[in-house]
Amino acid sequence: MPEDFNLTLNDFYSYLKATFSEYNYQIQSFYIVDDELYITKEAKLNLDKDLIDYSGLIITRRSVLSSPSFNIIRFRFMLPFYIIIVITELIFIAFGIFFIRTISNSVIRLKQATENIINGNIDTPVDTALDKREADEISSLAENLEKMRLTLKENSERKSRFIMGISHDLRTPVALIKGYSEAIEDGVICGENLCKSACLINQNAVRLEEMINDLINYVKLNNTDWKQNLTSIALRPQLESYLCNMRCAADMYKRKVTGNFNIPDDLTVKMDANLFQRVIENLFTNALRYTRDGDEISLNAYLNSNNTPVVTFKDTGPGIDKKDQQDVFELFFRGTNSRREDGMGIGLAVVKTIIESHGWNIEIKSELNKGTEFIMTMN
Q1: In Å, how far are 57, 281, 315, 367, 369 from 292, measured between CA atoms?
Q2: Which residue among 9, 171, 174, 289 is least enclosed by CB atoms within 10 Å?
Q3: Which residue has the higher pLDDT, 58 or 284?
Q4: Between 220 and 118, whose confidence is greater?
């Protein structure tokens, strides 16, 4: 306050009341006697009033925030919060260190797995049994890397089977052509046998050409450019046309062909008609090869519970062994019952490739001595 600041008693109390929350006030009375200053406590109020030269009040104040008692109280009040904050920070630091170490270890393992794949070592599985405390993203990455490894391994094995299958199946007609041509060249075969040998050479050359064409067509199916030319085609008329052609061919082989199409006449399906015809032809050729005189082949269609068209191809042939059913669609695979028959094992692989390339699904149901059924769901 200014030195000449004056207040009345009422004003003083009003000011004291207004600033009481900001300051701690201490009020003491004093007396001056013979130029000596006496405080209330010292005088003990026993001074002779007649001897008092002058009296007054000493007022001191201190900010509440700077008060030692306030600071002590505030410290005691805030201490638990300070402790909680420190402990929380320590926990976060410890968790951060643990999390970083966990992520680092996972990344190192993924790096090692990636290097194995890059170096061609696709037989070593990727460790997907990660700790549950590890990040979901790391676990997902490890699982995807393992799927990629399995795909690469499967493709590598398929490539090996592909080469071995080509080598095996093409070797027979090539060997026959080479053998007969060398025999003719050396004069071993002559006269009437010369014509027969030339005929055998021609038959094996035709067979060799068909095999090569099948391989070329199979490779072409992996080119997805044809998918851009799919058109909506009425399914029932298409199936009726296939059924008519099948009946004509079946008569020659003494087979019975039936069909039942329980689908609307105007139902259309987006497809490549020529490729779908190849599916039916391959299934039909396969059925003719393995059925016997009097057996039945049926082509049927219906709508399932989701109103999705389903086409089935069924025969009453010898059936497929259960252990072979999961592999019948593999390229060059030939089941136990088919090894006595001609063929490269490409037909059903082509069927599956065409079906799945259209986004459809195919499955097989078969039982020995009761026949086989192929079920195509046109999703």
Answers
A1: 131, 18, 10, 16, 12
A2: 9
A3: 284
A4: 118
Residues in the chain: 379
pLDDT digits (tens, 9 = 90+) for 337-362: 544 455 556 778 888 888 988 889 99
| Number of CB atoms found within 10 A of residue 280's CB | 21
pLDDT tens across 326-340, in order? 778 876 666 555 444
**In the predicted model, what is the mean pLDDT of the chain?**
78
Checking DSSP bridges between strand 231-234 and strand 296-303, what pairing results, if any? unpaired
Tokens for 333?
A: 């695979």
Segment 27-36, tens digit of pLDDT: 777 667 666 7
For residues 371-375, give the mean pLDDT: 93
Nearest to 310 by CA among 366, 257, 242, 362: 362
Entry pTM: 0.53
Are 27 and 59 in contact by the 8 Å Cβ rule? The answer is: yes
Question: CB-hemisphere CA count at 13 Å for 291?
Answer: 26
The 3-class secondary structure across the chain, one letter per residue, is CCCCCCCCHHHHHHHHHHCCCCEEEEEEEEEEECCEEEEHHHHCCCCCHHHCCEEEEEEEEEEHHHCHHHHHHHHHHHHHHHHHHHHHHHHHHHHHHHHHHHHHHHHHHHHHHHHHHHCCCCCCCCCCCCCCCCCHHHHHHHHHHHHHHHHHHHHHHHHHHHHHHHHHHHHHHHHHHHHHHHHHHCCCCCCHHHHHHHHHHHHHHHHHHHHHHHHHHHHHHCCHHHHHHCEEEEHHHHHHHHHHHHHHHHHHCCCEEEEEEECCCCCEEEECHHHHHHHHHHHHHHHHHHCCCCCEEEEEEEECCCCCEEEEEEECCCCCCHHHHCCCCCCCCCCHHHCCCCCCCCHHHHHHHHHHHCCCEEEEEEECCCEEEEEEECC
